[in-house]
Specification:
With 497 residues, this protein is of the alpha/beta class. The protein is built from 22 helices and 16 strands. The chain binds pyridoxal-5'-phosphate.
Amino acid sequence: MEQSYESTRCSNLKSTASMAVLKGIADDGGLYVMRDLELKKINIENLINKSYLEMAEIILKEMLDDYTAEKIKECVLKAYTNKFSKEEITPIVKVGDSYITELFHGPTSAFKDVALSILPHLMTASYEMNDIKGEVIILTATSGDTGKAALEGFKNVTGTKIAVFYPDGGVSQVQKAQMATQEGSNTYVCAIKGNFDDAQSGVKKIFTDPKLIKELKENNKIFSSANSINVGRLVPQIVYYFYSYAKLVESGAVNLWDKVNFSVPTGNFGNILAGYYAKMLGLPIHKLICGSNENNVLFDFINTGIYDRNRAFHKTISPSMDILVSSNLERLLYYMSGKNNEEVKTMMEDLNSAGRYIVKQDLKKKIDAEFYAGCVFKEETEKTIKDTFDKYGYLLDTHTAVAYKTLEDYKAHTKDKTVSVVLSTASPFKFSKSVYEALYGEAGKGEFEIMMELSEKTGIRIPENLKNLNKKPVLHTTICEVNEMQDYVKAIAYNKK
Ligand SMILES: *Cc1c(COP(=O)(O)O)cnc(C)c1O
């Protein structure tokens, strides 16, 4: 099969799509990218009036080119049938004079469900296709959201086991309850006596321990990760850009081939990058609007061409965007540099050694042509939540509010009248306390009481998966030291847990 993917940092490190999904990251630390992406084209005319699942099949087949159409169809069906509370998967609604695509109707009420529902199936299909026998053990460190979405995605998927590590005391009450009550015969959850970085470096150490890898291999087991740099997470996110556009055309909000803007609350740059991929595949996008919170490293980068992670880290009310190294940006640099692997490699080496890099002028110009960046801090985020609710009766979560306000700022600043879509990444009930306080001021009590009260006061229903969380049986109680993580993983691998 054609090896249409390569490492961002080395054009000789080639891979098929299916092996890229399985490996997650290239051997030199680069990310897998499709070299001839601009030669692929999705014909939008063919997508009008298609369902989300039908669109997903067409787009995934184009991007994951060594999977057969039958395999893709099977994966899409397994991922999206009866897993999302809306048949449209990602419904689009009109709020004011903009549109909002809701990406939070999956099993954990956050946008990561869209990709993590299908990744496990793409992985197990890859196993079969590449004639690899044995079991995949997924290891994930989480600061809250990713872990639960990964657990739900891999739950009861044959041939896989998943272990999630989170910092004890470092996640919200709701997030902890979501993980501790996780069902599934192949799911493992462990709190770590340390912070998120300890959990993450612990996982990395296990991943790269040559002795352990060899030992597992001899027993037909390999490690993999559900990390957001995996192409198997990026590609499924392209679908909702096309889907949103098709719905706008169907409803008459835009004419076919009219351009639209997308505004995206951004952390690791995965979601918005999928928008850039959609544009390369032929979707008429005018601007991609990148919203940041107080951790505004991307805002600075897009406006100055200098990426600099040497700065204070802020804990914000939109925690899933609290990131100083946006890993998926590397893929944008690859395409914008004209696929110059050496240039990308040098920038990433600068980032590693000095914490910063500067892009060349022509690269900066290309980014300017496609992207607009804004940043919105706590007070304005809260005001946006309150104003939008008061004016339109629509309740934004803290992340989506950042993108919504960034779009407003963009419109005021540029006078651009293009029809615009905000991607909504979480249910407001996932961040009940912050949303409640934005509307009504200080909320004192426990998170679950606040959730109920928020629902009563706003008249908006709590998603089923969050509703009775505090009444579900706790199934995971393990706590371990960082240096015990490896033993924990071994016990799982050899069925002693
Ligand atoms: C992960 C996440 C984001 C950031 O998405 P990236 O792909 O990392 O840019 C935004 N909002 C929510 C709710 C998330 O969970």
